[in-house]
Specification:
Layout lengths: L3 E7 L19 H11 L6 E4 L3 H14 L3 E3 L21 H9 L12 H13 L6 E5 L1 H12 L3 H4 L9 E7 L9 E8 L1
Length: 193
């Protein structure tokens, strides 16, 4: 089986940084968009895919214009839905509840929010829909961690060990699954914070 190349790029810095922004959208800064364009510059890609949120779409569109590529929009690449915490600064959330979430987001999802397994399921489905040619997905930190969980088998707790600041990029070689009910496997080839 031949592997395909997958690049996962976190959106650039939003105008209101440091918030729990899941479904809440934010306008990316010009510097954040430029940082994403710079991180994508050395990549050999045939497709650009993005979450449907503005903070990812703006960077994807800027990259696609430079490359002369269309942008595919897929809402399954969205960030985790933080429910009633969505859009809040972490300091505005109960400390114990937030700690429990980070310790185990499946057992302790945000109130009225999305459990970890739902994020993993939709990101997994989005990965199955990607083209076979080299692709860049402009997405969110949670979606990148979910993809790493599926492709590399990292337990959820280990995923917090990856620093994924805005405009961070992870590149992978992805081997298709032998059967439709199995997940593809991946190997990280680059991490560019």
């Amino acid at each position: 089986m031949t592997p395909r190349t997958l690049h996962l790029l976190r959106h650039g810095a939003p105008e209101l940084p440091g918030r729990l922004m899941g479904r809440t959208d934010g306008i990316p800064t010009a510097e954040g968009i430029a940082a994403c364009v710079a991180k994508a510059a050395p990549l050999d890609i045939a497709h650009v895919v993005t979450s449907d949120l503005l903070r990812t779409r703006r960077a994807a569109e800027a990259i696609a214009v430079v490359r002369g590529l269309p942008v595919g929009v897929d809402g399954r690449w969205r960030e985790l839905d933080f429910g009633t915490w969505d859009g809040l600064a972490p300091e505005a959330v109960d400390v114990q509840a937030l700690a429990a979430f980070y310790d185990d987001p499946e057992a302790n999802p945000p109130p009225q929010g999305e459990p970890w397994s739902a994020l993993v399921a939709r990101v997994s489905a989005a990965m199955f829909a990607l083209p076979a040619e080299p692709v860049l997905v402009v997405t969110h930190g949670g979606a990148i961690r979910a993809a790493l969980h599926v492709l590399c088998g990292f337990p959820q707790r280990q995923l917090w060990a990856f620093a994924l600041p805005c405009a961070a990029r992870i590149s992978l070689q992805v081997w298709p699954a032998a059967h439709r009910d199995e997940a593809p496997t991946g190997q990280i080839t680059a991490l560019v914070p």
